[in-house]
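@here heads up, posting the sequence + SMILES for the fe (ii) ion run so it's all in one place. Ping me if the SMILES looks off, I pulled it from an old spreadsheet.
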Amino acid sequence: MSTLAVDVKADVTVEKVGGRIGAVISGIRLSGDLDEAVVARIRSAILDHKVVFFRDQGHLDDTSYEAFASLFGQPAGHPSATRRVREIGAESRFQTNVWHTDVTYVAAYPTFGLLQGIEIPAYGGETAWANTVAAYANLPAPLQRLANELWALHATRHANGDEFETEHPLVRVHPETGELSLVLGSTTKQIIGISATDSTLLIQLFQDNITRLENTIRWRWAAGDVAIWDNRATQHSAVDDYGDLTRRLRRAIIEGDAPVGVDGRSSTIVKGADLEWRITGDPSY
Ligand SMILES: O=C(O)CCC(=O)C(=O)O
Ligand SMILES: [Fe+2]
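bot reply: prediction finished. Complex structure tokens:
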């Protein structure tokens, strides 16, 4: 990871905006036609900083936003949908104002998530991200050793009754960086093989370490801003403090791969399937 606050190459600047997470990238007009080298530069900034922000990208519409998202992998969505870009507003506010990693109730959960500000309230409505790699790295060694051995059940039930359950390692090896990150979030139900009482305490212990303020960044949206996060190395939460004001964001997520734990084992599906969550048509934040 670069230790410089600002890193400049070919008119593109990557400027850290948080000590452990977050950078603003300037000098790029986002589109689906970016050079391979520019895409590689963005991807490596995401891997380094876990979430990156671009200002003034109001020229994007659903189509060009999806084309841009596709530079990082296959945008996920209903297979028959013509667009894999969705606008989110009031309907999602009570599902997303909690710390989570997107769609961890399936095995191959998304690699990246993208949001763009469309209509931003005069106050509030920020989004916060937390670095789950930094959270693991800053644990004392005995807690790291404990975490390395634990697996957790992630589960949810969609409004249409579809149920999803997956077992993930508590610590995953990042497939691109090799970094170790904690895998938890709002759909984590139980540490496998540990009593419900102790399991709740352990989840709380590791979750509290993820969301320590020094591991987080909060983004004050302006219309046109785009954020891209590494969903394998972060959690995020919307901040529901904008009262009755309107808040609209454009969203896309990129299809992922199943985590691998430090012992080399991959996540396993207990109920439901990786693809089903997209086919139900249910929102999956
Ligand atoms: O509304 C937000 O700030 C976050 C939404 C969210 O959790 C998501 O798009 O995955
Ligand atoms: Fe989310």
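MO: DSSP finds seven helices and 17 strands in the chain.
MO: One more: Residues 96, 100, 102, 236, 285 surround fe (ii) ion (ligand 2) (CB under 6 Å).
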